[in-house]
Amino acid sequence: MKHLPALGAAVAFIAAGSAYAATSVNIPLSGTLDKECNIDAILDGPFNNLQMDTTANQQAEQLVANCNYSGTATVTISSASGGFLVGPTNVGYTLTVQGLLPATQLVAPAVIGMWPVPVANVDAPRNLRINLIAPATVAGLYTDVLTGQIMFN
C-alpha cells in the first residue's frame, strides 16, 4: 500500500506529459545561392585576321554573358595596348558592342553597366566589331589583346 501513492504520481506525470505533446512540428528549411556570372568569347576567325588596309567594319565576333539570375551584369572590356594594334607602327582602332557601346577607342577600359541577361542560365551574346581609325601603312604583324570581365549587378 505504500507504493500506491508513488504509482499514482508516476501515472499523473506521464499523463501530464502526454497532454502537452504536439501532433505535428514545423521544420524550417532555407538556403541561399549567391549571384554568379561567367563571360566567354565566341571567336571564329575575323579578329585574328584583321584587314589592316581598310577602315571598314571588320567581321563580328561575340562576347557572351551568362548569369544564374535574370537582370543585368556589368561587363568591362580593356585593351592591353590602350586601343592600339602594336606592330611596326601603332594603329588605333575602335570597338563597338552591339546596342551597348558605340565605337570607342579603348584608351581606358570600357564599362558596360547594364549588359542585359534576360533569362537565368541562358547565354546573352552581343556582337563585337572592330574598325581601324586609319589603315596601317607599314607591312608587318599588328597585335593587341582585349580582356572582358563580368560582375553581377
Give a topology summary.
Elements: H1 3-19, E1 37-42, E2 61-67, E3 71-79, E4 84-86, E5 90-97, E6 101-104, E7 110-117, E8 124-132, E9 146-152
Antiparallel strand pairs: 1-2, 2-8, 3-7, 3-9, 4-5, 5-6, 5-8
Count, helices: 1
Distance between the termini: 79 Å
**How would you sum up the major sheet?**
6 strands, antiparallel
Q: Let me know the average pLDDT.
A: 91
Share of residues in strands: 35-45%
Strand element count = 9
Per the CATH scheme, the topology name of the domain at 51-152 is Immunoglobulin-like
Task: Identify the quaternary structure here.
Answer: single chain
Radius of gyration: 32 Å
The CATH architecture of the domain at 51-152 comes to: Sandwich
Which range best describes the helical content: under 10%, 10-25%, 25-40%, 40-55%, 55-70% or over 70%?
A: 10-25%
Shape: rod-shaped
Relevant terms:
three-stranded antiparallel β-sheet; mainly beta; 153 residues; six-stranded antiparallel β-sheet; single chain; Immunoglobulin-like
Give a description of the structure.
This protein has 153 residues and is mainly β. The longest helix is centred in the first third of the chain and has 17 residues, at 3-19. The chain has a domain at 51-152: Immunoglobulin-like. Helices cover 11% and strands 40% of the residues. The chain has one helix spanning 3-19; strands spanning 37-42, 61-67, 71-79, 84-86, 90-97, 101-104, 110-117, 124-132, 146-152. The model has no long low-confidence stretch (mean pLDDT 91). The protein has one helix and nine strands. The strands form two sheets. Strands 1, 2, 4, 5, 6 and 8 form a six-stranded antiparallel beta sheet that branches.
